[in-house]
């Protein structure tokens, strides 16, 4: 069975700093997809970034980028120039036949 | 326009009652989902329907019964509510059920259920 682990329950960084959220997963599959979702205090789940396992190139979306290490089964999210609006819970997710979420990292951006 | 909507947003009820949460999507998607997010924020899939057909049914109590009258609606009915059912329930939809990178799931705003 696939599992997703986020080892950082909570993090705080100063505004404008760069922060990296870690995620590891376990699977025997070779083709799958990985996502990072953001859940701000409003509770709405928002897709931040996605990565195809067969692509070696790391996905990037504006200030958000990932470091995908397939052999290590690692999928970290880097947020550059962090903003107050980035304060949220961040969930790493694995998708094969169904989506499995990690337990989340609560990120605080401090003014 | 709201893509995935849920009603109600908040639901407070007594233990033992039966309640329903409604979900509607106007995206023309074929697949809909129900997720439960517990007090520790852990998000887990419960059910998935594709064109009104149940395709994912995780280990949840029989008291939970999804109903899909058409592919735009997926309601969740809960019988004999228990304290442990208190959580936020999210509905979501996606274009189809294939495990596709572009098969993005769109989430509703969630329904916070509190069982007293």
What does it look like?
The complex is a heterodimer of chains A (111) and B (116). Chain A is globular, with a radius of gyration of 13 Å. Chain A starts with a strand and ends with a strand. Chain A has 111 residues and is mainly beta. The mean pLDDT of chain A is 93. Chain A contains no helices and twelve strands. In chain A, a hairpin with a 4-residue loop joins strand 8 (64-69) and strand 9. Chain B is an all-beta fold. In chain B, 32% of the residues are buried. The chains are: A mainly beta (111), B mainly beta (116). The A-B interface holds A 32-33, 39, 42-47, 50, 52, 89, 91, 95-101, 103-104, 106 and B 40-45, 48, 56, 88, 90, 92, 99-101, 104-105, 107, 109-110.
Quick structural summary:
The complex is a heterodimer of chains A (111) and B (116). Chain A is mainly β and 111 residues long. Chain A contains no helices and twelve strands.
Entry keywords:
heterodimer, A: 111 residues, mainly beta, globular, B: 116 residues, seven-stranded mixed beta sheet
Describe the largest sheet of chain A: 6 strands, mixed
Number of helices of chain B: 0
Order of helices and strands of chain B: EEEEEEEEEEE
Poorly predicted spans of chain B: none
End-to-end separation of chain B in angstroms reads: 34 Å
Beta-strand segment tally of chain A: 12
Gyration radius over CA of chain B:
13 Å
Globally, the shape of chain A reads globular
Sheet having the most strands of chain B:
7 strands, mixed
| Total count of strands of chain B | 11
Helical percentage of chain A: under 10%
What does the secondary structure layout of this molecule look like, with pairings?
The complex is a heterodimer of chains A (111) and B (116).
Chain A: E1 3-5, E2 10-14, E3 19-21, E4 24-26, E5 33-39, E6 46-52, E7 60-61, E8 64-69, E9 74-79, E10 88-95, E11 99-101, E12 105-110
Parallel strand pairs in A: 2-12
Antiparallel strand pairs in A: 1-4, 3-9, 5-6, 5-10, 7-8, 8-9, 10-11, 10-12
Chain B: E1 4-7, E2 10-13, E3 19-25, E4 31-37, E5 43-50, E6 53-57, E7 64-70, E8 73-78, E9 87-94, E10 106-107, E11 111-115
Parallel strand pairs in B: 2-11
Antiparallel strand pairs in B: 1-3, 3-8, 4-5, 4-9, 5-6, 7-8, 9-10, 9-11
């Amino acid at each position: 069975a696939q599992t997703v682990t986020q080892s950082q329950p909570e993090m705080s960084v100063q505004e404008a700093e760069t922060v990296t959220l870690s995620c590891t997963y376990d699977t025997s599959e070779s083709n799958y997809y990985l996502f990072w979702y953001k859940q701000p205090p409003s509770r709405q789940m928002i897709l931040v970034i996605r990565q195809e396992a067969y692509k070696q190139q790391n996905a990037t979306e504006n200030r958000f980028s990932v470091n995908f290490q397939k052999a290590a089964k690692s999928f970290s999210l880097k947020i550059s120039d962090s903003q107050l609006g980035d304060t949220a819970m961040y969930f790493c997710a694995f998708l094969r036949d169904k989506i499995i979420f990690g337990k989340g990292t609560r990120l605080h951006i401090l003014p | 326009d709201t893509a995935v909507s849920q009603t109600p947003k908040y639901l407070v009820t007594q233990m033992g009652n039966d309640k329903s949460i409604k979900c509607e999507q106007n995206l023309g998607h074929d697949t809909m989902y129900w997720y439960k997010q517990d007090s520790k924020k852990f998000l887990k899939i419960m059910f998935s329907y594709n064109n009104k057909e149940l395709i994912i049914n995780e280990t949840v109590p029989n008291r939970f019964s999804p109903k899909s009258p058409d592919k735009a609606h997926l309601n969740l009915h809960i019988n004999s509510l228990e304290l442990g059912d208190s959580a936020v329930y999210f509905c979501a939809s996606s274009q189809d059920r294939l495990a596709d990178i572009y098969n993005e799931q769109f989430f509703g705003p969630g329904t916070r259920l509190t069982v007293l």
